[in-house]
From TrEMBL, chain A:
This is Cullin family profile domain-containing protein. Residues 509-791 form the Cullin family profile domain. GO terms for molecular function: ubiquitin protein ligase binding. Belongs to the cullin family. PANTHER family: ANAPHASE-PROMOTING COMPLEX SUBUNIT 2.
Length: 909, 192
């Protein structure tokens, strides 16, 4: 056909010839050309000739057909072969044809429909086969390449389809024509977009585009990312650039618009959810302990929102697009929520590492403050993790306790009202209550050595340092709170109007309060008393400052009346200090000297004393008149009793203490009220004779002071400072338990002290443990402990198996590795353990059980009327549980005293 | 803090409440009685008398169960008797009420187990009772044990037994054995 003659090349001409003979059936062929209208013969009934030719419809149809043919030929898109070279080479009649066709609306519609069809056919034949991958799910790895390929393909076909039109538009001579053509082009573009969208699976396309956009945003972020600068500026300056995204291309090929917007929205959502919160700029601040959330909000509104605006502007071809403030906040809120979720997931770890992780806790706080409904979720997430990681047999009780203190701290930070804390602390508390050692650990932690805020030399399994630190802190706070008479307290507030009579205006909702609230106060006090006793006996501070403060703390927190025993104990040790001053056994060495006024003053007890009894102490040292004169100096008289004056005496030259020590042994005795102290170790053994003498002389003086109390020496509790003179060295051990001193004394070669010397240390023979046990009438446990101690100190060595001798010179060591067993050996405590106490009083308990079962009939162990409860009721000293009762019953069953019948125990008939 | 401790102790308080509700007699016994009974129990347990034992029956310290074995060389030899002791609120100024739970054939014990014994009656002016505050559970039980071997036939509650004691010891013993039930058998019957 003639139109295709413009095509260069033989092949196309051949085609033209072919199609001229066999015209194509569809209307895409420019039909009028193939069937030329040669006109119609005038009908005979018509006048022939003349100039006034009437308007001829046939003529119009011919013109229309020709124009159609020309236009479609210009636009046609051959399926096979290259698309013809679009260029300025087109015939001038094309313009006319378009003007003719596009002017009436119907023909323009027809032409548009035709062109849409033409594009569709070409698209399906040439482009779609190459996009076959869209019909299957797109793997993420292939998404980017597929996306790029698609965009390129679509771009190419877009150029193909529209270059003809564009050329026309460019060469249009009048603006009217141009406008007409542009309108046509716009419609054709729209048709093209519809075509593209309809021929690809939309959902898949949208998701893939979203994914690719996210990838590109990430790339953009990583290109504009400089966390170091950001951290210096305390503001994130990283940004996402919209020119990293092929937005305008997408828009051009028809993937913009709604689909593109949706994909972009998906991408932004994922960006906020996954990428932003993991960015380095928004990591937990460990250095400053600040929340990063304000920074995140600012970054979103200042850096991300403009990017979104710009991108959406391009996608929707509306360049003045603006986000509302609401939208900006919405984006920021999404990011904050996501950050909150992220932090919540690892909240357990943050709590575990509190206080370094305060920043993270503050993040969560910020998050829940903007979204109160999330509180319960945070709690439940935390409790789930806690169940899995903390509340089982794995962790030690001290670990759980320190976690508990951390939980208290961090959740109080999260929620000052303590509602969340109550929620999460519940499971920990109920779990802690199931652990047997919790109370004793808490008690021990309360008293653990804490000189300067450091917990030193403690067994990590028995003491929880976190609590110790808390106690030292809290007691100070508490002391401040109790200064009720602090008139200059500008923060004083009256008690709340609804406060009960027991209300204490203290800020004592602190960790100590929570710890003390863990247990029944009585049980707790009992345990604390035991630990306190141990502590008081070993304390070196004559003022007992720490212990006093602690008891005051307990009195303020717990029921003060229940702490009577603790107070008595404290008073006992304090009284002992002054008692030692008064009954100084050293006095007997200085009898010839008249006493100094200071000594007399020290001898006057606080509760007053009569002249006679006071003078009795000094009568063989000074004259009565002289004594009275001195007494007036240091004491005031009220009702025949003398009380010490509170004035300070002028300093006297203190006599060197060594002078006395050379002659005697410094001896201090603590007088304890047995009823109020926990049961003590009562092992008895032979003391070195000096000690025994001193004990008895102290006893005499004590009763001479008019004391009604009976003294009973607990030798196992005594502690001695031992100095050993060996051939090549000098060993000094401070605060050695008396049994160790006794044992080493038995090895002494000088001044054999034992009158009944059934043990004679012979360096050649050595001594065996049995000999020592017999000679000192000491229990094996203590002898072995002492031997191990001195061997560990390299004072004794094993001469032969089980035979010990003094290691006079270190080079005498036979090369046997010194046994450092002292560390591993279980420390023998002065206060008896519950177990030992149970064993000691087992016979009595067993008698009771026997009587109960005989007279009350068979019983079960548990239950309201069971053996345990009955024992507790009739025997206040029985403070054990069912475990112990079962043990006792087991022992009795072994001796055939009781029989078991299922759960019921009965006496043997 | 205060409310937390309050919540903690409320559990135990409720528990005590339940206890006292279950034993209305408890408030009647004051602390001194309980203390006295506890020390008596301790004495009984630490220095037991052969053939005698006593122990509180339940949560109420003022109700005890006791076991007495019949003295040898009497018709009651090798028989075990259960008794209940109930202490009044003004104990030890008033005697405990003692009853035989095990059926016993004895001149001074009636069919309901009540015992006629001078020390179980309140003493004082114009009364023939011989109770005194220096007596205690142990001495009461010892008296009852010796009463088994030496009945006071002058004031019998069971006249037939008093007559038979004097006339026919063999028949008496037969009656005693017929009336006696070993406590374990009674318990077994109760359980069944």
């Amino acid at each position: 056909m003639a139109a295709t003659a413009v095509l260069s090349g033989v092949q196309s001409r051949h085609d033209d010839v072919f199609t001229s003979v066999f015209p194509q059936a569809d209307y895409t062929t420019p039909t009028p050309e193939s069937t030329p209208n040669i006109g119609v013969l005038a009908s005979p009934g018509q006048p022939f000739g003349g100039f006034s030719l009437p308007h001829n419809a046939v003529e119009d149809a011919v013109r229309f057909n020709r124009a159609w043919s020309t236009a479609t030929r210009h636009l046609s898109l051959p399926i096979s072969g290259d698309i013809w070279q679009k260029g300025p080479k087109f015939r001038p009649e094309v313009h006319e044809a378009f003007i003719l066709l596009c002017s009436p609306i119907e023909s323009r519609k027809q032409l548009e429909a035709w062109y849409a069809n033409e594009m569709g056919v070409h698209f399906r034949h040439c482009v779609l086969p190459e996009l076959g991958e869209w019909q299957q799910p797109v793997p993420l790895s292939a998404a980017l390449s597929l996306f790029q390929k698609t965009v390129i393909l679509l771009q190419k076909s877009f150029t193909q389809y529209f270059s003809g039109l564009t050329a026309l538009i460019i060469s249009a001579n009048t603006t009217e024509v141009r406008a007409m053509l542009i309108a046509f082009e716009a419609q054709a573009k729209q048709n093209f977009h519809v075509l593209v969208l309809n021929s690809l699976p939309q959902q898949r396309l949208q998701k893939t585009i979203a994914y690719v956009m996210l990838l590109l945003m990430k790339t953009s972020l990583s290109h504009n990312n400089n966390p170091e600068i950001c951290s210096k500026q305390a503001e994130c300056r990283c940004s996402v650039k919209s020119d990293f995204l092929p937005l305008d291309q997408l828009q051009a090929v028809g993937l913009g618009g709604n689909l593109g917007e949706r994909a972009f929205a998906l991408a932004v959502h994922k960006l906020l959810a996954r990428v932003v919160v993991h960015r380095q700029c928004f990591q937990v601040r460990y250095d400053t302990s600040e929340s990063v959330i304000p920074k995140l909000r600012r970054w979103i509104t200042e850096r991300v929102a403009p990017f979104i605006e710009q991108s959406l502007g391009i996608l929707t071809t509306n360049l003045s697009f603006k986000l509302t403030d609401n939208d900006r906040n919405g984006f920021a809120q999404t990011a904050v929520s996501n950050l909150g979720w992220l932090r919540t997931a690892s909240l357990f770890d943050y709590v575990l590492h509190w206080p370094e992780t305060t920043g993270a806790i503050l993040d969560i706080k910020e998050y829940i403050s903007s979204n109160a409904a999330e509180k319960s979720r945070v709690c439940s997430v935390f409790m789930n993790i806690m169940d899995r990681r903390l509340l089982h047999a794995g962790p030690q009780t001290t670990e759980i306790l320190s976690m508990y203190t951390n939980v208290i701290h961090s959740f109080r930070l999260l929620d000052t009202k303590g509602v969340m804390l109550e929620k999460v602390a519940g499971p920990i508390r109920s779990y802690l209550r199931t652990r047997d050692d919790t109370v004793s650990i808490i008690a021990a932690s309360f008293l653990a050595d804490d000189e300067k805020g450091d917990v030193i030399n403690v067994d990590p399994a028995k003491v929880c340092p976190a609590i110790t630190v808390e106690v030292s802190k809290s007691s100070l706070e508490d002391a401040r709170d109790h200064k009720m008479l602090d008139w200059s307290d500008m923060h004083w507030q009256p008690d709340p109007i609804d406060a009960g009579p027991g209300y204490k205006a203290s800020k004592s909702e602190d960790v100590v309060a929570y710890i003390l609230g863990l247990f029944d106060p009585e049980e707790f006090i009992k345990e604390v008393t035991t630990v306190l006793a141990q502590h008081l006996l070993q304390a070196n501070d004559p003022e007992y400052v720490k212990e006093t403060r602690l008891i005051e703390l307990f009195k303020s927190r717990l029921d003060a009346t229940k702490l009577q025993a603790a107070e008595v104990m404290l008073k006992d040790v304090r009284d002992s200090v002054s008692l030692n001053k008064r009954i100084n056994p050293r006095a007997k060495f200085v009898t010839d000297e008249p006493p100094k006024p200071r000594e007399i003053q020290a001898a006057i007890p606080d509760e007053g004393i009569t002249t006679q009894s006071l003078y009795k102490m000094f009568e063989h040292r000074m004259q009565h008149a002289q004594f009275l004169a001195t007494l007036k100096l240091v004491a005031t008289r009220r009702n025949d009793l003398y009380f010490p004056k509170r004035t300070r005496l002028p300093l006297e030259p203190t006599q060197p203490a060594e002078a006395d020590e050379a002659r005697g042994i410094d001896n201090r005795v603590q007088v304890l009220s047995g009823f109020f102290w926990p049961q003590m170790r009562s092992n008895d053994f032979v003391l070195p004779p000096h000690f025994a003498e001193m004990d008895s002389s102290f006893g005499h003086r004590f009763s001479a002071l008019g004391n009604q109390r009976k003294l009973h020496f607990r030798r196992a509790l005594a502690r001695v400072t031992v100095e050993l003179e060996l051939e090549d060295r000098h060993v000094r051990e401070v605060d050695v338990p008396a049994w160790r001193a006794s044992v080493i004394d038995a090895f002494a070669t000088m001044e054999r002290p034992y009158q009944d010397a059934n043990v004679e240390y012979d360096p050649e023979q050595g001594l065996t443990a049995e000999q020592l046990m017999e000679a000192l009438s000491m229990e094996e446990e203590l002898v072995m402990d002492a031997l191990a101690f001195w061997t560990g100190k390299r004072v004794l060595y094993q001469k032969a198996p089980a035979t010990f001798a003094v290691l006079e010179r270190l080079d005498m060591d036979t090369g046997m590795a010194p046994q450092r067993t002292t560390g591993q050996r279980e420390v023998i405590f002065a206060v008896m353990s519950q177990d030992a106490m149970l064993r000691e009083s087992a016979p009595m308990f067993e008698t009771f059980i026997k009587g109960m079962l005989r007279d009350g009939g068979p019983k079960e162990v548990g239950g309201f009327m069971g053996v345990t409860n009955m024992l507790k009721m009739v025997l206040p000293s029985f403070t054990y549980g069912e475990e112990e009762v079962r043990w006792l019953l087991g022992e009795m069953e072994g001796r055939g005293e009781v029989v078991r019948n299922g759960e019921v125990w009965a006496v043997t008939r | 803090m205060a409310n937390r401790l309050g919540a903690m102790s409320s559990a135990s308080a409720a528990n005590q409440g339940a206890k006292s509700a279950g034993n209305p007699s408890r408030p009647a016994a004051n602390g001194n009685v309980i203390k006295r009974l506890q020390s008596e129990l301790m004495a009984l347990m630490t220095s037991p008398t052969p053939g005698l034992s006593a122990f509180p029956a339940g949560s109420d310290m003022t109700k005890w169960n006791a076991t007495v074995t019949g003295p040898s060389d009497t018709p009651y030899a090798d028989l075990t008797f259960k008794l209940t002791l109930s202490y009044p609120a003004n104990y030890p100024y008033a005697p405990p009420e003692v009853l035989f739970k095990t059926p016993i054939y004895h001149p001074n014990v009636d069919m309901a187990g009540r015992i006629c014994l001078d020390i179980l009656k309140k003493g004082g002016d114009g009364s023939e009772g011989a109770w005194s505050a220096v007596l205690n559970t142990g001495s009461v039980l010892l008296s009852i044990q010796s009463l088994l071997g030496e009945p006071n036939n002058a004031s019998p509650l069971n006249g037939e037994a008093a007559l038979l004691w004097d006339r026919d010891q063999t028949e008496y013993k037969k009656k005693v054995l017929a009336r006696h039930q070993e406590p374990e058998d009674v318990e077994a019957a109760d359980v069944a």
